[in-house]
Amino acid sequence: MQIKEKLKSYTALKRGILATNFYNMETLHGTLKAAAELNEPIILQLTQSSIEYMGLKTATQLARTGLEQFGVEGWLHLDHGGSKEIVLTCLDAGFDSVMIDGSDLPFEENVQLTSEVVKYAEKYGAHVEAELGYIAKLGQAKDKVGFTSPDQAKRFVEETGVDALAVAIGTAHGFYKEKPNLDFKLLSAIAQNTSATLVLHGSSGLSNECLAKAISLGVGKINLATEIKNIFMGTLKREMAKSDEIDLRKIFPVATEKITELIKEKLRAIHPA
Ligand code: 13P
Ligand code: ZN
Ligand code: NA
């Protein structure tokens, strides 16, 4: 099934699809194993820096062959595409979905940029996500100034024809220094104002209850990154401190397995029985 239809059908059932970033074979396979064991679909995300790290061809082929190897239904998505150039490169490379992040731009410029990407994506039937409002990037200040306005969301989706919209309701990328305080009333208002799939960014550090609540109010895609890196590197550090083992094929699987456990927990949280 196309990602667009799948997101729509899941959202209608008040379910969400988990979108996870991967950085290498281990983080990818750890995630795919979880999706396979719970028989759930997954969106595999690459940022520009992950593409630069692995190389575009290696990264996309790793994802495609991984889905096949683990027998998982999933899609390849560009996360936070920061320029038209990177977005078009990924569309040409066969990505199922791209995010154009024009959230730093004034409203009209964000509309313009997003519209251009939507038009280009049409020739591939690809799915497009945009961002409206301000979701703090790693290390940025978190304040309420940039929350998504329901009226602007409505206009933005109508004017751009975008499929999915990242909303700013109080989440932030990375871990939270203080307990996050999400504006669920605002989320409901946005959901009532638009038919676009709503995307929750910054899910690392949110409780399972928070994730479930966001889904129940209409979020269709849940983005998770930092917790994956954190559990992988934390486990590696502990394992390496324990022994002088130099065979990475003995050490890495322990960390990969921790990712599988993490992703299974998240999948269970967002798909209440
Ligand atoms: P976290 O790093 O907080 O999980 O956010 C991930 C994200 O929004 C990727 O787009
Ligand atoms: Zn994000
Ligand atoms: Na976060």
Question: Could you characterize what this model shows?
Answer:
It is a single chain. By secondary structure, the protein is an alpha/beta fold. The protein has a single domain (3-25, 38-225), classed as Aldolase class I (TIM Barrel, Alpha-Beta Barrel), CATH 3.20.20. The protein has helices spanning 3-12, 25-38, 48-54, 56-70, 84-92, 107-122, 150-160, 184-193, 208-216, 226-242, 248-270; strands at 17-21, 42-46, 74-81, 97-100, 127-132, 164-167, 197-200, 219-224. Strands 1-2-3-4-5-6-7-8 form an eight-stranded parallel beta barrel, surrounded by eleven helices. α2 packs across α11 (248-270) and α6 packs parallel to α7. The radius of gyration is 18 Å and the shape is globular. The model has no long low-confidence stretch (mean pLDDT 96). It binds 1,3-dihydroxyacetonephosphate, zinc ion and sodium ion (NA). 1,3-dihydroxyacetonephosphate binds at residues 21, 79-80, 173-174, 201-204, 223-227. Zn(2+) 1 binds at residues 80, 173, 201. Keywords: Metal-binding, Zinc. The active site is at residue 79.
Q: Into which percent range does the helicity of residues fall?
A: 40-55%
Helix and strand run: HEHEHHEHEHEHEHEHEHH
What's the shape? globular
Overall pLDDT metric: 96
Tally of helical segments: 11
Report the CATH C-level class: Alpha Beta
Ligands, deduplicated:
1,3-dihydroxyacetonephosphate, zinc ion, sodium ion
Strand content: 15-25%
Q: Termini separation (Å)?
A: 23 Å
DSSP E strands, number? 8
For the record, what is the CATH homologous superfamily label?
Aldolase class I
Please name the CATH architecture: Alpha-Beta Barrel
Structural class: alpha/beta
Q: Segments where pLDDT lies below 50 for 5+ residues?
A: none
CATH topology: TIM Barrel
Largest sheet: 8 strands, parallel, barrel
Strand order of the largest sheet: 1-2-3-4-5-6-7-8
| Count of domains | 1
Rg over CA atoms: 18 Å
